[in-house]
């Protein structure tokens, strides 16, 4: 069993003290949030009463007052804790003990308060009351910057970020844009196809024969039927059967599985979108793809242009159309039309393209 760190031990001790105060550190009831940080920034009204919730991400305690930052799904908002505003009676333990001593960075809290602007113009929530919604038992890897601008403890290790996506989302908020844009892209594709009259379907994930691609499948066993089954490596064949059955156009967002090598761009479990339409040809498919990619770019980025590293890509249709042989000639200087296998191997080696005996 993994040994607890000093911080984890301290946080568990705080958890016990919170319970001893009669406070449930993990309440199950609904908390009536009515504003997000983004809504406050966009629709700010001085003195407006709001109810917000999120993670406590930073705080500066100065005696009976404290400024802090609360992070929700939309961003961050500054909040101001004042002991006498929160504890209007003689009992000041909610501020002095719960807030100052027992809360930690990363804890989820709910806040009722009023909007005001600080002397430096920062839109802020004056806390009138707060409630602990979830006590965090492990410290967040928050970066620290010294007086010379050096950054320490940043959560930047690629392997850790991929293994702990939930932490990456908390401490690197820009990562959330990838998740949001993925949803926008999928919704755009779905809406685009639906408006064309194509039918979204679901095809079997467990298949008696893995087909539609050349890949090694994951194998399982169906106990009731006493037969082997395979996680699908592709959904192609079942979609084509629906076309045979009489549908003019079908598409599917499917999870496919391939029991092969993996790296940063190849995962054994991945999502694929496939579309099959009757009575069309590849020229029609190229036209459709141009329209779809332009629409996706506009919906996801509000522009047809996007950056891929240092390269700007414009998805504005139409696109240049070029055959494979013409593209090879244009970008390598080799005209391979009519070449035999030995000549192709020689060209590949000159271009430092890896080839082996299985290729031919």
Describe this structure in words.
The protein is α+β, with helices and mostly antiparallel strands and 360 residues long. It folds into four domains: 129 residues, Nucleic acid-binding proteins (OB fold (Dihydrolipoamide Acetyltransferase, E2P), Beta Barrel), CATH 2.40.50; 28 residues, no CATH class; 105 residues, BirA Bifunctional Protein, domain 2; 38 residues, no CATH class. It is 32% helix and 26% strand. The strands form five sheets. Strands 1-2-3-5-4 form a five-stranded mixed β-barrel. A three-stranded mixed sheet has the order 8-12-13. The chain has a three-stranded antiparallel sheet with strand order 9-11-10, with no helix packed on it. Helix 7 packs across helix 9. The longest helix is centred in the middle third of the chain and has 20 residues. The two termini are 53 Å apart. The mean pLDDT is 94.
């Amino acid at each position: 069993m993994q040994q607890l760190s000093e911080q984890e031990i301290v946080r568990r001790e705080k958890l016990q003290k919170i319970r001893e105060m009669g406070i449930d550190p993990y309440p199950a009831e609904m908390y009536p949030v009515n504003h997000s940080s983004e809504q406050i920034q966009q629709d700010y009204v001085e003195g407006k009463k709001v109810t917000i919730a999120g993670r406590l991400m930073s705080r500066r305690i100065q005696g009976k007052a404290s400024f802090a930052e609360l992070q929700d799904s939309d961003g961050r908002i500054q909040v101001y804790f004042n002991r006498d505003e929160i504890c209007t009676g003689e009992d000041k333990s909610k501020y002095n003990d719960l807030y100052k001593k027992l809360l930690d960075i990363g804890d989820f809290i709910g806040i009722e308060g009023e909007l005001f602007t600080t002397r430096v113009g920062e839109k802020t929530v004056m806390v009138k009351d707060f409630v602990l919604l979830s006590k965090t038992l492990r410290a967040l890897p928050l970066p620290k910057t010294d007086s010379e601008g050096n950054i320490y403890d940043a959560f930047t290790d690629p392997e850790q970020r991929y293994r702990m996506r939930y932490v990456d989302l908390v401490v690197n908020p820009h990562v959330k844009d990838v998740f949001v844009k993925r949803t926008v892209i999928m919704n755009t594709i779905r809406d685009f196809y639906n408006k064309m009259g194509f039918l979204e379907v679901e095809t079997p994930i467990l298949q008696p024969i893995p087909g539609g691609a050349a890949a090694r499948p994951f194998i399982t066993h169906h106990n009731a039927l006493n037969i082997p089954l395979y996680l699908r490596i592709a959904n192609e064949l079942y979609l084509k059967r629906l076309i045979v059955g009489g549908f003019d156009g079908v598409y599917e967002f499917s999870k496919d599985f391939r029991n092969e090598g993996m790296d940063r761009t190849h995962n054994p479990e991945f999502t694929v979108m496939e579309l099959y339409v009757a009575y069309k040809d590849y020229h029609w498919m190229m036209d459709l793809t141009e329209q779809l990619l332009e629409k996706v770019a506009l919906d996801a980025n509000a522009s047809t242009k996007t950056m891929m590293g240092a390269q700007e890509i414009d998805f504005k249709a139409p696109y240049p159309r070029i055959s494979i042989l013409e593209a090879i000639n244009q970008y390598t200087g080799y005209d391979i039309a009519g070449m035999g296998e030995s000549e192709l191997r020689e060209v590949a080696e000159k271009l430092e393209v890896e080839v082996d005996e299985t290729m031919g």
